[in-house]
Amino acid sequence: MNATDDLISGLAAQAGVEPHRSAAAFRRALLVTALLSLAVALGANWAGFGLRPDFAAMVLRAPFLFKVGGAAVLAAGAFLLVRRAALPAGGPLAWSLLAPGISLFLLRAALDPVGPARPKGTVTGNCTVEIALLSLPALWLILRALRTAAPTRPAATGALAGLLAGTMGVAAHAMVCGNDNGASVAFWYGLGLIIVTGLGALIGRRVLRW
């Protein structure tokens, strides 16, 4: 066991949680937690909202692919950042890892600044609320996993946990969202991600400190 593993174990013991045996074990556990978080978000979406009526027709079209693709790429960047932030010897945070995912949403917004008419009854502001709700179970799971590590930047680590959880909510919500306008999606989805990221920072500041 190296110095990083010793520090993780010692800090986790002080926090009253069961530590992972090594940094490598924590990384594996965090990956499993992220996948579980996505499954929970998809399940919550299925139970609460279902699928949009034209899902089969839309699944291979640009609006849906940009939503899911943007969420997946942003999730990958957030995962790498939160994994690094959770370990005391992880080094500086490379925020540029978030750029590819953000760029996909911005590209779609630039390509579709107006877009087609939305289905009758679609309320765009609901996207933000629903994404936040779908992200809450994922945020809880990810923060719980992070408590077994030793983050030296609790607020930043919590914010990244919120962003990662938010991408799970975005991916799940894309299955039901009837709003296909690129600019509108970038705004309302982005607002949802900002809310969950801020919530993660507030909670992480308290529960991840040692």
Can you describe this structure?
With 210 residues, the chain is mostly helical. The chain has one domain (3-207). 70% of the residues lie in helices and 0% in strands. It has helices spanning 3-15, 23-48, 55-58, 62-85, 99-111, 125-146, 154-173, 182-207. Helix 5 runs antiparallel to helix 8. The longest helix is centred in the first third of the chain and has 26 residues, at 23-48. The radius of gyration is 18 Å and the shape is globular.
Going by helix content, strand content and strand pairing, the class is mainly alpha
Task: Give the SSE string.
Answer: HHHHHHHH
Number of helical regions: 8
Mean pLDDT: 84
Write the layout of secondary structure elements.
Blueprint: H1 3-15, H2 23-48, H3 55-58, H4 62-85, H5 99-111, H6 125-146, H7 154-173, H8 182-207
Helix pairs in contact: 2-6, 2-7, 4-5, 4-7, 5-8, 6-7, 6-8, 7-8
List keywords for this structure.
210 residues, globular, 0% strand, mainly alpha
What's the quick description here?
With about 210 residues, this protein is mainly α. The chain is about 70% helix and about 0% strand.
